[in-house]
Structure formats: structure tokens, C-alpha cells
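Extended Data, panel c. Modelled sequence:
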Amino acid sequence: MSFDNLGLLNELIRAITEHGYTNPTPVQTQVIPPILEGSDLMVGSQTGTGKTAGFTLPLLQRLMARFKAGERRFVRALILTPTRELAAQVGESVATYGKYLPLKKAIVFGGVNINPQISALRSGVDIVIATPGRLLDHMSQGTLDISKVEILVLDEADRMLDMGFIHDIRKVLNRLPKKRQNLLFSATFSDEIKRLADGLLNAPKMIQVTRHNTTAEGISQVIHPVDSRRKKELLSFLISSQNWKQVLVFTRTKHGANRLAEALKKDGIQAAAIHGNKSQAARTKALLDFKNGTVRVLVATDIAARGLDIDQLPHVVNFDLPNVPEDYVHRIGRTGRAGNVGQAASLVCIDEHQLLKDIERLLKRTLPQVIIEGFKPDPSIAAQPIPHGRMQQRSQRRPHKQFRR
């Protein structure tokens, strides 16, 4: 099937073609027609499946159906995302595919000066892409009215709940008009997601593009057992000896990301860290340098990496295993996107054996283990298991009241 068969506007087809795409991905094929029909959707889709274009294209077309030039603009579509990076990515998608349409957008998130956002909103926009906290800031200041929204999109809803945004989301929902189209996208369908969907969606169509908590077929996965104190040395060895040119590395903490990036630079490997304590400008620069090859290794925490859109990323490394098994799926989903192949390596010390078991239980498979010569773990070292579990991880992620994403 081609995009021409989906009933999209010529202006959208033109923008898609210029961007180099000819055929829709499976998720796009399944979600675009029902969105154009005005249906509510609940979509299960992993990262890298093309879901952003899947909702952006029909959303733009539905807005154009009732667009009248010269009329006063008001917010007709609201797209909520969990992180700044994902908001920026969605905003880029709206700009790319809406290139030949007269619709205007505003991207709203914290960590940057609010005044340019206020100016953009006051000039009149059709679409707002926002993170929950900063959206509420604008609403409380009276700089944003969402009372006429026609289409609501919750992107990566599972991540928003994991980050403690459920109360912010409910506040936003209370200010929206009752009659609207609702689109919910989530990599996983937990009981909490289902409860949210029950109160949000009206007779939704259910679309599951990939099986629950599965990883892309194009990703090769390997575990490298190693002592905790030698992880940095092993990572440096792997990058150098195998000549990896572009590597996304995950750590458990922000401080750990900083320390690892500095250690790699001392080994002559250009690296940068990206996490919530970095300014938006620093995060944007680090990502740009990583994409253009100036930086070879990008070290990130889970939250900061959410929404990163890096075409054909060849390598992902779990320097630390995640506390929540589903995050393993999200992490390695950064590679092997859109049919490309990728490699995911995890450096696992004895303390993380229970976390590894949890991941393998989720995946319903045992991951292959390869001991790198010279890095065999010391059998005399006793394990000090890392606390794990979804509830604890959620409580750690819950943002302080004064913090707005």
C-alpha cells in the first residue's frame, strides 16, 4: 500500500514524498483511516514504528476540513507528551508534514523561557504540543485556552503515568470540551492505562501493532557479564576495539551519566551526557552533536532519552540495567527502527542478576551471555542486589510540585 491509497490530501502527500517516504508503516496503515473517520483510538505501538506520523497526518487533514482563512485561530488540537524531547520531535513532525498547509503550531514545555511561548500562543495557533506541567502553567496564567479542542492526543501515555503525571493529566482533561476525538498511544497496556482509557475514550477502536512488551526482530541482544568496578573499562574497550561510531548508552542515574561521559572522554572517546538536570539548550546541542557525528557516545537516563528520534542508530548499551523491566524494551527500541538492524548490549554485574531475570521473564526468553576476554567476573565478589520493582521506581520518578516539564 502507498500513502496515496489512504485518502490523504495532496499537500500532505507532497510533503511526505519530499521527506523521502513512499509506503506507510503497519501502524500508519492501521491508524490513519479510523482517525480520518473521527474514531477514538487506543493504540499499542513500540517506538520506531512511525506512530508519530500515524497521528500527525490525519490530525492535520481533519483540522483542514474545517479551516477557514482569515478567521480567528484557537487551539483545535492538543498533543500531550511526557518529555521535552518528544514534544520537540512531534513539533518537528507537524512542521514537516504540514509544510504546505496554513495551520500554525506552538510547542510548550518547561526548562526554557516561558515568554516566547506566550507570544506564540497570543498570535493564535491551531495545534499545541505540550508537556503536562508547562501546559498547566499556561492555563493557570490564562495564556492558553483549551476549551475548544477538537482532537486530543496522549502520546506515550504509559511513560506519562510512570513519571507521575496522572494528576496533571486529569486536571487538563477537566478543562477540555466533552465532545472531542481522543487518541491514546502507549507501548504497554497496564491496568492503570486501561483505567485512564476507560474514563477518556468513547467506544474506542483497539489497535495493537506489536505484541505486548516485545522487542523488534532486527535487534540482536547480548549480555556481557562483568564486575561493577570494571564496567567503564569494558565499555571503552568495546567501543574502541569494535570501532562503534554511534552509541547510545543508558545509565540509572544523572550523576552516573555525567561520570561515565567524563570517563569516556579521558579515554579519547568523544561523549556527552543528556539528562533532566541539563538545560534544554545543552540537551539540544548534545543530541545535535550526536546526530552529526561530532559526539560518538551519548550517555542518557531513561527519561531524557524518551522521544529521541535517531535514524539508523546502530548500537544501544545498557551500562546499568533498568529497575523496571519494560524500560529495557523502551531502551533497546532506540535501535533497529523502521526495519533497520541494530545491536543492544547490556553490561551486567552480579548485583543486577535479579533485574536480568525480571527482563527475561518479561521477554519470555533467555538472553545470550558472552564473557569478553580479560573481563571475566570475579567469583569471590558477593552480590548486593539492587532494589527493583515498578512501584518503587514510580515513586522515585514522581516530580516535585515545583518542577514542570
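Residues 66 and 76 are 10 Å apart (CA to CA). This feature is highlighted in the accompanying rendering.
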